[in-house]
Write a structure and sequence with these properties.
The complex is a heterodimer of chains A (97) and B (503).
Chain A lengths: L10 H18 L3 E7 L2 E7 L11 E4 L4 E5 L9 H12 L5
Antiparallel strand pairs in A: 1-2, 1-4, 3-4
Chain B lengths: L3 H10 L5 H4 L11 H10 L6 H12 L6 H8 L4 H19 L2 E9 L27 H15 L3 E5 L8 H13 L1 E3 L4 E3 L2 E5 L5 H9 L5 E2 L7 H7 L9 H5 L1 H7 L5 E4 L7 H19 L5 E3 L21 H14 L4 E4 L5 H8 L5 E3 L35 H10 L3 E3 L11 H10 L2 H19 L3 H21 L4 H12 L8
Parallel strand pairs in B: 1-2, 1-10, 1-11, 2-5, 5-6, 6-7, 7-8, 8-9, 9-10
Antiparallel strand pairs in B: 3-4
Helix pairs in contact in B: 3-13, 4-6, 5-13, 5-14, 6-14, 7-8, 13-14, 16-19, 18-19, 18-20
Classes of the chains: A alpha+beta (97), B alpha/beta (503).
Chain lengths: 97, 503
Amino acid sequence: MPDGEGGYVNVNMMQAFEQLESMLESETGGPVHLVRIAGQRWSYAAGRLPLEESFDAPQRVILSPEWALLFYPGNGSDIDREQIRELFEKHAGKGDA
Amino acid sequence: MLTEETNTSSWMSRRIKNDEIVKYMDHGRDFIDDVLIERQLAEAPKEPDPRQVREILAQSMAIKDLSPEQVAVLINVRDPGMLEEMRDTALRIKLKIYDNRIVTFAPFYLGNYCVNRCSYCGFNNDNCDAQRKVLSPDEIRREISVLAGEIGHKRLIVVYGEHPKNDVDYIIESLKTIYSVRVKTRNGHGSIRRVNVNAPPFCVEDLRRINEAGIGTYQVFQETYHKETYARMHPAGTLKGNYNWRLYCMHRALEAGIDDVGIGVLFGLYDWRFELMSLVYHTQELEKRLGIGAHTISFPRLVPALNSAIPADWPYLVNDEDFKKIMLIIRLAVPYTGMIITARERADIRDEAVRMGITQMDASSRIAIGSYSGGTTDAVTVQKEDRQQFILGDTRSLDELIRDLARMGHITSFCTAGYRCGRTGKCIMDLLRSGTEGKFCKLNAVLTFQEWLDDFGSEEARKAGEPLIDKEIAQIKEKNPKALDIFMDYHRRIKTGERDLYL
């Protein structure tokens, strides 16, 4: 992914995702992707690939106007969106910074 | 007060940022090594051993990129039997990755002002016969009302010339206008859901702004990778005359966060063999340096333009047989990449291309500025040489194309879900390579096809399309039972008028 000098990837959000990804995966039983929102476009930013058998509709959690998560839960569970937003606020700080 | 000419010159002088070329180069050298490519072509076996060809085909079938040396071998295959094996493999690869879907779109030219003087192009600045125009927001809305409300398109490729009138601010505003139009249809509503952009090369900062507008794919064609020919076609001192500014455009796009990029060649400017090898080098360079290869490859073929300097006996014009071989080899060389064949080509060539692995086609296409809402509905007579870049070879309506594809067993997909679900860039590449993307696409193809049939399909199109949908649903039941409940729920809701449900 393009990042670093002059790149577009927001370091705080990426770091928060790296810290939380394994925990989120084990709770939901499937891959979780961090995506960046630009208008209609949700661009993949991070998360385990490939999505071998994950063809369920992804569950979306919007973290901020710029960032969202996509869950591909292997255990069919519903995602607690509020809890996840709080978790990310704690790790990455509020807003998009 | 500054004259328009002075303003344009000043605008041009600020466009190219040399540091955004050199930083990607390898010790001052670009990644198209003309001498190496010519040598690889010269050293490839003139009559390739069938065993070697079959090994290469097996590699393609395993969804692995081919090396330029392997591409050079395929270029030399002339034996009809071997060509048939190549054709068969190309189709099998396409079905493995993309199944029987063809994604459809429409070209939408927003303006034909251009500061460049490309000798093959009808929009070149020296062409005094071209009627120049750039669409206003109201004109854009009228065009989209036809595209999304009468024809039923959901995906566009919007085309901008290189000119201050079509600069980045105009691009962003026009994208907002396009996305804002919502039109009532027979059973629901229509809108454009994905706008791919064909525009000149920009600097990283401008590309970042364009990305923020929510584009689909960013497409820039090198036209020719052959430096001598490039210089001949694109005069020095023009913006397009800078080969490397264009060549490294996709490096900048990826750095700016546009992670779906489309490359292409205007076949016919130089030897197609050289161009094909260069396309492979380009996609491999993007993969190696930025981790994401080309999302799509386009391969327009040169046709005469009004006042074009290309003579009818130009030695590099590509005949039909070679053109088909080009398509086959692209499919085999980059097995997972989307392939676009436009209505530049005749209907018979496009129908054949469907059986050779292409993935996207346009239909009901109008390429004169403002011509979707501009009066006559006759696609043939509406072609205006002084207002369009080239003359179309396939003037079939979307309804006709859909019927023809259905007869060939192909479902027309209006799916735009991937880029709205994070399936972009490296993610989509991996999904395509592993064959997983097809599972999402099949569901979305059926849902969007049903929408189109209900909103726009003629009686004949519905007769051809509905049995295809029944067949697809039966396959989903058999092969993708996990997704069946949600799919059937969405399908039922679409039948009752809900729109834009996707997985």
